[in-house]
Amino acid sequence: MEEKEKPLPPNQRLTGRLDWPYVGEREPLPLGAGERWRVSVGGLVAEPRSWTLDELRSRPQVERAVDIHCVTRWSKLGARFSGVPLSRLLAECRPLPAARYASFVARSGNRHSTSLPLADALRLDALVVLGYEGAALGEDHGGPVRMVVPERYFYKSVKWLERIELLAEDRLGYWEREKGYHNAADPWLEQRYIAPDVNRLELGEAIRRRDFSGKSLLSIDATGLKELAGLNAQEAELRDAKFQGVDLEGANFNGANLTNAHLNGANLRRATFVGADVEGADFGGADLRGADFTGASTFGTTFCEDEDFSSPALLDASTTFDEEAIGKLLPRQQEFIRRALGR
Q: Are 82 and 130 in contact (CB under 8 A)?
């Protein structure tokens, strides 16, 4: 089946024939990457075990074509991964009857982790991956070893895997606990984020002062406010925020996290997004004249409809994009931006 004919989960866009973008756990890189690496299984198992990379590579490898669906709205179909099925490793460790969850822990400075119900991890045929497209898995993409869990947003496929623990009770991982990502992560149900938990008095004061700087306002709905010109949202956490049609002229979003934010039709003239994370954000129909996206992270960002360039954002020569920010966009979005800027 051709890539374009295969159905996608809601609100996802294809990367086309590009390699999958490098997103997510950027810093810090794995601790002690040059040291001898082991992957261990512990917790509620009868026989805890660990394996070196050479021992994992010496096992029979399986290759699978897996559709990657990133929470920041891009998808890559048919990525070919090779490795050892999780089920085979767990079988050797003999999970105890009380084991109901699997926690996957990375070898990174932030101890990135995630979790899945054990039954789901086995049913989805999770893979302990060592290779990608016939070559060793690169460090940027989670090498030398990572998890790949089909049919879940890709944050459930933890990079730089070092430890697997079987637990009786769930243990929320880094993305779920610290960033508010949905623990179930089913892309077909669009389970991207947990419900927002915002102190209404604090939010009201922030709106009155037009100062969201440094605040965590996950999934806030500001669509009824209309007038937030000059908003200071520097370094704010605004993932999945809804700003459709809002007047945000001159707003400061420098360094903010606007992953998957809805900015359709907003007035963003002279707004600044320097160093901001706008991955998966939708700017369709927004006025971006004079806006500055220097250094912004733009994987999966939408400025127009992919198929026919409809519902476009309004840009002109006064809109600032550096080549790095443009280069991170998906191909059709790059084409639109370059055309709009006359490049």
A: yes
The closest of 127, 124, 150, 148 to 61, measured between CA atoms, is: 127
- Do residues 252 and 273 make contact, with C-beta atoms less than 8 angstroms apart? no
Cβ–Cβ under 8 Å, residues 288 and 333: no
Tens digit of pLDDT for each residue in 249-262? 999 999 999 999 99
DSSP-derived secondary structure letter, 34: T
Q: Residue 2's pLDDT is what?
A: 41
Q: What share of the chain is helix, strand, coil (3-state, %, to 5)?
A: 20, 25, 55
Distance CA 55, CA 231 (A): 55
CA-CA-CA-CA torsion for 146, 152, 155, 159, nearest 10 degrees? 0
Structure tokens at 224: 């009824």
The whole-angstrom separation of Cα 158 and Cα 115 is 9
Helix, strand, or coil (residue 327):
helix
Euclidean distance between CA atoms 339 and 5, whole angstroms: 27
Is omega for the bond preceding 144 within 30 degrees of 0, making it cis?
yes
Nearest Cα to Cα of residue 180 among 163, 168, 197, 164: 197
DSSP string, 172-226: --HHHHHH-B-SS--GGGT--BPPP---HHHHHHHHHHTB-TT-B-TT-B-TTT-
- Write down the mean pLDDT value for the chain: 89
Q: What CA–CA distance (Å, rounded) separates 132 from 238?
A: 33
Q: Note whether 146 and 126 are within 8 A (CB).
A: no
pLDDT in tens, 293-332: 999 999 889 999 877 777 899 999 999 999 989 988 888 8
Q: How far is CA 83 from CA 80, 122, 230, 268, in A?
A: 10, 15, 51, 46
Side-chain half-sphere of 232: how many Cα atoms within 13 Å? 7
User: Which of 314, 274, 318, 319 shows the shortest CA–CA distance to 298?
Assistant: 274
Amino acid at 257: N
